[in-house]
Write a structure and sequence with these properties.
By secondary structure, the chain is of the alpha/beta class. The protein contains five helices and eleven strands, in the order H-H-H-E-H-E-E-E-E-E-E-E-H-E-E-E. It is globular, with a radius of gyration of 15 Å. The termini are far apart. The mean pLDDT is 92.
């Protein structure tokens, strides 16, 4: 089995091989599927990452949350403490490039504990059938997901990011659901009831 760094490098290479048009087309399909999941429809508070160029895009999801009157939380990175603060925004116009150029809420945004969410949309570099994910290697999302309470952790990924089995450590927090352009896989922690 490859180590996490090799898996990360391999999965990022596969993801980056997709053209901008493919990323947009597949992302639209993935976002449309997520937005009809029972977990999304019932959620009053949704946390979502703001996607980088080659990640599964999240703009449609965030606009849907805002237009439906739900509360939208977007992470703000604190690289000194290696933590994320999920902050409420009321418009995508509030987002501006922050850490590593990723769109983030302003410093003045109200931080909300993830335990108040019902759904957390999680970025994925690689995923497997056990619900394990590999991220970018700093553990930001894993640390925060521990405090999510009963919120469903939903990873968005392209099929090219799938690996048969990922190395896992005790600090890794598995996903409840993965949504790709071809399927929805539930891993046991989340229910659509």
């Amino acid at each position: 089995m490859m180590n996490k760094e090799d898996v990360r490098r391999d999965a990022l290479k596969a993801r980056r091989s997709l053209s901008a048009e493919q990323v947009e087309k597949l992302s639209a399909r993935i976002q449309n599927v997520l937005m009809v999941l029972p977990e999304f429809l019932k959620a009053g508070v949704v946390a979502s990452y703001a996607a980088k160029r080659d990640e599964v895009q999240t703009g449609r999801i965030m606009r849907s949350v805002l237009s439906s009157g739900k509360t939208l939380l977007v992470p703000r990175t604190d690289p000194h403490s290696l933590s994320l603060r999920f902050c409420e925004i009321r418009s995508l116009d509030q987002l501006a490039p922050g850490y590593l150029g990723i769109l983030e809420p302003p410093l003045t945004s109200k931080a909300v504990p993830l335990s108040e969410c019902q759904l957390v949309v999680v970025p994925v570099v690689a995923w497997d059938y056990a619900g394990q994910r590999v991220g970018y290697g700093k553990g930001y999302f894993d640390r925060e997901l521990r405090s999510r309470g009963r919120a469903a952790a939903v990873g968005l990924a392209f099929e090219t990011q799938h690996r048969d089995r990922l190395p896992a450590t005790p600090s890794d927090v598995p996903l409840d659901i993965i949504v790709t352009e071809r399927r929805i896989i539930r891993f046991g922690g989340a229910s659509g009831d």
